[in-house]
Amino acid sequence: MSKSITQDMAYRQSLIKYAEKYGVSRASRKYNKSRSYIYFWKTRWDGTVQSLSCQSRRPHSHPNQHTEAELKLIRDMRRRNPNLGMVELWHRLRQRGYTRRPESLFRIMRKQGLFPPAGKKEIYRPKPYEQMTYPGQRVQVDVKVVPLRCIAEPELRLFQYTAIDEFTRLRFLALYPEQSTYSSADFLKKLFKWYSHRGIRVECIQTDNGFEFTNRFSNSKRDLPALLEAAAANPGIRHKLIRPYTPRHNGKVERSHREDQKRFYSCHSFYSLDDFSKQLAVHNRRSNNFPMRPPGWLSPSEFSVQYV
């Protein structure tokens, strides 16, 4: 299929043919064009009109483009860690001297084809979400069962209680040997004290409808408050329950559990309660000092300081 011929291309064709017949100087006077202009298009002319079309003027390079050393660093890091998340990859590259923004890293990785082909996803249209405006306005709480393959003693069962402030993303983690109403009430007292030491007053906690948090779906104790609800009523903390069977309403703490599984439980083992408690405290400090996108690529600890 032949390309369309524009008016400029036909004009240049007429100019070149006239210059070949009568010379460049005479064509310059007749068409009121400089000699260099005619020589430029005469060099490009190969007998076809398409050779007289304007080419792209986009530059082949940019002064701030990624250097070959940076590209090699990105390719090597991606090859060694094919399943690493974008932020974790950028964080490790930055520790090795990479100075670009995460957005620049994403663009160059997409251009280099370093992302696996994504499958087609169903379109999910979420409802408008109520954004928090200050620290402590609402804290999401949930429990994660520690994978058995991480525990050296087969009879030992461990549970990670997690609290995350929706505004600052500041997390508090605690270890318990059982998932019960007593553990939940004790965890509430600890998280209230932990956030208070950082200048954050917890006004509301949000949980799912598990029996460790509420008696809402209990046949015999529906009218009795759970230990956590009683412990929350004493300092005046509001307890909010999400819609049943809708874990995405507690999405921030659920996402943090996914990150815990990827960064912590997939590569750690625990030999006792004391050992797990020490490793969990180190992981909690690391996660609170890890850069995140919602607070503008600051860590939760850095972001919370601005408001406390």
From TrEMBL:
PANTHER family: INTEGRASE PROTEIN, TRANSPOSASE RV3428C-RELATED
Organism: Yanshouia hominis
Database matches in InterPro entries: Homeodomain-like_sf, Integrase_cat-core, RNaseH-like_sf, RNaseH_sf
Lineage of origin: Bacteria, Bacillati, Bacillota, Clostridia, Eubacteriales
Residue ranges occupied by any Integrase catalytic domain in the UniProt entry: 131-308
This protein's name: Transposase family protein
Classification via PROSITE patterns: INTEGRASE (PS50994)
